[in-house]
Known about the structure:
Layout: H1 3-16, E1 20-25, E2 28-33, E3 40-45, E4 54-56, H2 70-76, E5 80-83, E6 88-91, E7 107-108, E8 113-119, E9 122-127, E10 132-137, E11 143-145, E12 150-155
Antiparallel strand pairs: 1-2, 2-3, 3-4, 5-12, 6-8, 6-11, 7-10, 8-9, 10-12
Amino acid sequence: MDLKEIQSLIKFIAKSGVNEVKLEVEDFKITIKTGKGTPETTIVHQAPVAQAPVIATPAVQTAMTPTESNAEKEEDSKYITITSPIIGTFYRKPSPDKPNFAEVGDAVQPDTIVCIIEAMKLFNEIESEVSGKIVKVLVDESSPVEFGQPLFLVDPS
């Protein structure tokens, strides 16, 4: 099982809402747990002769968003939300010396890259699924994000 397959498995589990998954394939064993607390992933890879090294990712902290007033919620309801498809760390630019993928006021089309989310040392490009103009960035640079957490508001008009 390679890294892309593990990443796909984690995405699937995050979307499905399952609490725990154990998978054993020949010399490879993976257990992914997502409980009411913080999500945790443990990967065990057994070499044929050596003792099995264990790689454990640290628990991801949840990001708390302040409550919005009713006026803000009503105003935001006319916009389309781009949400996080995975758990990880949110980045607005490909590297520290590069410009942001998307700024407030930028027009986006489907498949336009708007940010990157790092999960398990893999950088996943997040694309817009809608056409419109970005009106609000909802997450700070280098902040942890949850599955389904709103990242951007897009005005479809």
